[in-house]
Description:
By secondary structure, the protein is α+β, with helices and mostly antiparallel strands. The chain has 6 helices and 6 strands, in the order H-H-H-E-H-H-E-E-E-E-H-E. The strands form 2 sheets. A 4-stranded antiparallel sheet has the order 2-5-1-6. A hairpin with a 5-residue loop joins strand 3 and strand 4.
Amino acid sequence: MAKTKKKAAKKTAKKPVGKKISKVAKKSAPKKSAQKKTKKTPKRSGKRFLIIYHAPPHALAQTANASPEEMAAGMAMWKAWAKRVGSKLADLGAPLVNGKRIQPNGSTGSSNRDVTGYSLIDAEDWADLEDLLSGHPHISGWHPEATIEVHETMLIPGM
């Protein structure tokens, strides 16, 4: 009886099922035209603001020498602020280093702006933006010389 089971198992295993599976897979695969859809950015209401963080170089050195506990506390402040701002935070941004200045003649040099990072925030108006920036970790005691600079972005028609 054991031989009969082994023979039945071999017959089942030898059946060419690859063709049937590939036909099914081809039928269910999405068409190429469906894959070419581009993701459109939803229109936003209100305005978008570029938030530029400034701090002197020695402030960054101070951060680099912080203990893991101090770093974690700083990140917790940033996470709490980002959560409070929610969907109005278009881009949390990132720290910035090694800024360069490029002249019209092609010469380059180091930036002297002490820019340390950026974020993008969507807000209805200046009052809304001020509310979103209140308690911001960059200007909440991290460093006495830390500042935030704000620029409203302009929509370019057709872009």
